[in-house]
Design brief:
Elements (H helix, E strand, L loop, with lengths): L2 H11 L3 H8 L5 H14 L2 H14 L5 H17 L8 H12 L3 H17 L3 H8 L9 H17 L3 H18 L2 H11 L7 E5 L2 E5 L1 H8 L4 E4 L4 E4 L2 E4 L4 H13 L4 E2 H9 L6 H17 L5 E4 L3 E5 L6 E5 L7 H7 L7 H8 L3 H13 L4 E3 L6 E3 L8 H4 L8
Helix pairs in contact: 1-2, 1-3, 2-3, 3-4, 3-5, 4-5, 5-6, 5-7, 6-7, 7-8, 7-9, 8-9, 9-10, 10-11, 13-14, 13-15, 17-18
Length: 406
């Protein structure tokens, strides 16, 4: 490898894309094209970066599998930053295997971290944890150690384990400072803000209190019966009942919990669960059926008693009832939670991350755009969606996919 290529590679590793481009901007050989692509990615021109990397990959000969694998990893990183999450992960896995066979431990580790970050984004926390298990980051350079610790922190945050997350973020900060890469340090600091930003509201007995993630973790580990409106579930003493596919039952449970220790009137329950402004006998009959279903769902956790005016939630003796709600009862809060990272998402990537249909996500985006809460970028298949960062919307709470591995 010639001195210009070596110097450009070192500049990119140190986070100096302009310095790297000064060395190779006029060269069109495959190694230079690959490094130019990485430099353009670091500068934010992702479309140009993808074109350069594809040209580089085509230019490498059949005996240059290692170089092609590095291009694939760079393309995978661009896809991750672009939130293009619906592509196949097989190419990245194959590239990682090639890098490991050729002894390129640093780029193989980078490929592993990219795969882990993708799994975290789409809510496959168990798979991400398996890929991370047993991997020793000690021999890696500081920048990759920071990436490793960010992955550890991301999993811990999704699991609502704040102390391991805090430790991992502290390790990531030390590694980022040792790497002397400003953008990496900024990423670590941004992740750390999730621990100090209100993540939810505690609604109990008519009052509301903001909670940090540590407070959420403590609440879910307490003796209280928690109606979790962030993930549409009901929790008590480590037992969780997911209701994300049963919105009517969850609406009834939340309404009863907000009225605790009193009762919720039938009119209130009908309005909240069925959006019925003028209830007739059919609505009241349906309410009796759904209350019966909720009683069956809560068997062994709480009882529901009929009152003269409506229904009341009765937890076991000595247990309180609280509602854990998002920082704001914003419509389509889960979509906003993902867009709050400041990246540009496609509707298909949002659907994959949320476990919803693309049409459902598109309807939510149209409503949010009408309210000027999101904005589209590009047209057709290239269209992406963005929103300004919203304090208090950490995806570790608002993505129901996290429940599967909780």
């Amino acid at each position: 490898m010639d001195s210009l290529i070596t110097g450009a590679a070192r500049g990119l590793a140190a986070g100096d894309p302009l310095g790297a481009l000064n060395l190779i901007a006029l060269r069109d050989d495959p190694p230079a094209l690959a490094l130019r692509g990485i430099a353009m990615a670091q500068l934010g021109d992702l479309d140009r970066a993808k074109l350069l990397l594809k040209r580089a990959a085509r230019g490498f000969g059949p005996r240059e599998a290692l170089a092609r694998a590095r291009c694939i990893v760079a393309e995978a990183e661009i896809a991750l930053v672009s939130r293009d999450l619906d592509g196949s992960a097989k190419a990245l896995d194959a590239a990682r295997s090639t890098l490991e066979r050729h002894g390129d431990r640093a780029n193989a580790a980078h490929a592993r971290h990219l795969a882990i970050r993708r799994l975290i984004l789409i809510g496959r926390i168990d798979d991400a944890e398996k890929l991370l298990a047993g991997f020793d980051p000690a021999p890696l350079p500081p920048a990759l150690r920071a990436a490793h610790e960010l992955a550890v922190a991301g999993i811990a945050l999704r699991r609502l384990r704040t102390q391991p997350a805090r430790t991992a973020l502290a390790n990531a900060e030390r590694a980022a400072r040792a790497a002397r890469i400003a953008s990496l340090l900024a990423e670590v600091e941004s992740a750390a803000q999730m621990l100090t930003t209100p993540a939810a509201r505690l609604i109990a007995r008519g009052s509301e209190t903001p909670l940090l993630l540590a407070g959420v973790e403590a609440l879910l580990g307490s003796k209280a019966l928690v109606i979790d409106a962030c993930r549409h579930a009901i929790s008590l003493a480590g037992q969780t009942i997911p209701l994300d596919t049963r919105p009517v039952l969850f609406a009834l449970a939340r309404t009863l919990a907000e009225a605790f220790p009193g009762d919720a009137s039938r009119q209130t329950l009908l309005a909240r669960a069925f959006r019925a402004r003028h209830a007739d006998e059919s609505h009241r009959a349906r309410l009796r059926v759904e209350i019966g279903r909720l009683r069956k769902t809560l068997a062994g956790i709480a009882e529901i008693e009929a009152t003269s005016d409506g229904f009341a939630l009765k937890p076991p003796r000595g247990r309180d009832v609280v509602v854990l709600a998002p920082p704001s009862d914003e419509a389509h809060a889960t979509v906003l939670a993902l867009l709050a990272d400041g990246e540009a998402w496609s509707s298909s990537a949002l659907a994959l991350a949320l476990g919803a249909s693309q049409r459902t996500v598109q309807r939510a985006l149209d409503e949010l755009m009408a309210g000027k809460k999101v904005q589209p970028v590009g047209y057709g298949r290239a269209r992406r969606w963005m929103a300004p960062p919203l304090p208090g919307f950490p995806t570790s709470l608002l993505l129901t996919a996290a429940l599967a591995g909780g």
